[in-house]
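Reviewers asked in the last cycle whether our approach scales beyond single polypeptides. To address this, we selected a multi-component target totalling 643 residues and predicted its structure end to end. The input consisted of the following lines:
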Amino acid sequence: MTTTLPEIDRRPLRRRQWRRAGVQVACIVITLFMALPIVLIGLTAVSSSAAFAEFPRPFIPSGFSGETLTSFIEATGTIPALGNSLLVGVYTVVLSLLVGAPAGYALARYAFRGKDTYQVFMLLARALPIVVLSVPLATMFLDAGVYDTVFAVTLLHTTLAMPTTVLISASVFVSVPTDLEEAARVFGCGRFEAARRVVFPLAAPGLAAASIFTFVLSWNEIFGAAVITLGHRTLPAQVLASLGEAPQAYRFAGGFALILPALVFILVMRRYLVNMWGTTLR
Amino acid sequence: MSEVVLHELVKTYPGGTTRATDEVSLRIADGEFMVLLGPSGCGKTTLLRMLAGLDTPDAGQIVIGGKDVTYLEPRRRNLSMVFQSYAVFPNKKVFDNIGFGLKVKGVPAAEIRRKVEWAADLLQLTPYLDRYPAKLSGGQRQRVAVARAIVVDADVLLMDEPLSNLDALLRLSFRAELKKLVSDLGITTVYVTHDQVEALSLGDRVAVMRDGRIVQCGAPVEVYANPADEFVGGFLGSPPMNFLSGTVGGDGAELHIDFGGQTMPVPSALASYQGKQLKLGIRPEAVTVDAGETGLRCAVEVFEPLGSSTLLTTDVCGQPLKVTAPASFRAEPGERLWLRLPPEQCRWYDPETQLLVEAKE
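The resulting structure, written as structure tokens, was:
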């Protein structure tokens, strides 16, 4: 027995395929837009200064050469500035976690008066332009005798990183079930021990992601660091200060050196970074 | 193993307007399996959390093994607990999960190994000791949670709806296993559930809770047979107890209740209700269908074959009455039947207080 079925209508399927292709193209365009400057800077940084003058710039560098980078690294002040940047970054991560993670824990676990106000208030530090913040800070640091030190920059960066550290770690702690903590407490742990044995290990990946975020923030921060340091500059501040008189090669190499850590960290922490904002990649 | 005494416990959660528990008192004997049963929001979990020390009571006292623990931290109470969500530590292997309580208390490693292996064997977890909980099924995770709770030599074992996240079949088999396990251990147990079947099957005694109070506490059979009020009768049993309202009439010698056209004799002890409203409570399985066309007349509304029995929803003078009939019983909707309500199975309730009225001489 045969019954006549209507012809299969493939138009909706085709529409969907077209739409998907459109999204793909958009993704590629956006990626290119974001990646092009990075690629150009990277290419220039590993090319010789002769190749640097070529136009249009070839996508495959004509000759690899460490010349540009070497000249950047050998330039006065680069190595100490690099050291300063690393120190400030690490100190900022440690300090902001020490202060911010417990605050995040409190926000996640306890209901207290003024909790919402507190959360909004914290973002206020980020509402002010860094330049506005750093000038009064500079005079305060001068008075306190810590102006132009790694410590001063660390304090500034910790302040800037604090809101994100607190809010991110709060969301990390919220994702650790209260039940687990209570189970630990019933089975013999005090509050601190329960946090150490159960909550912290589970929160660690998220907190690591928050730290990376903080480190990159500190590494890239330039205006504040430029205002409150003179002799002990961080790398971005150093590069900024030398921009005027430095040759173009120096600028590209400097830019590359600044981009590199952020790229590496984002690559390593990509999964956590995506997790951090509540969505999962796969 | 210890006796547990809860004395007039009051708890109002911050921001709450009603008391989660309202002067609840309960005495749980050493080695007894006590079930706290009630609908969600009745205060049963609050009571358990106060007993565990996870919540602090506003007033009242908690005594475990003769020692006051009302405001003591959870870890100093020597309790163990099975959580509804299992609360198995995802970052620890099964072995370390089970041994967690022992490790925290500083028990030597060899002793931990011995006890964990004992518990794992008891709960059929031995092949999984080296796995992470993520690689286990829900049932296995629940076993880990139970194993973790029994390896520590706790005075009291607390269980917060431990079976409610398991699927129906697993729940049935694990229930029996749990009962055997706990009775073998002989540990004082407080078990919270909203499932009346679990409560009846597991408990030495059942405390039925409602609106922050214990409505009735007694042996499962006793609570099932003689519900202290309409709520308990309606909450226990599936299908629940039937209630028929009527007016008591007749003279001093013989009383009867009029359901609205049909009457039935009433025990003479209820003479004080003459001329007043009264409610009859009867279990569906206590009602029998009378082939002799005597008794209460009803009309069949719904006929539901349940496999092991048949459930009839009938109409008696405009009031619904559920009847559990044998599996072989057949009836058509609209059909007339005559029902027999054995007097010894009838319970009487005051419509105003909703409380059981003693009808014995």
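The longest helix of chain B spans residues 168-185. We regard this as preliminary and will revisit it once experimental data from Aim 1 are available.
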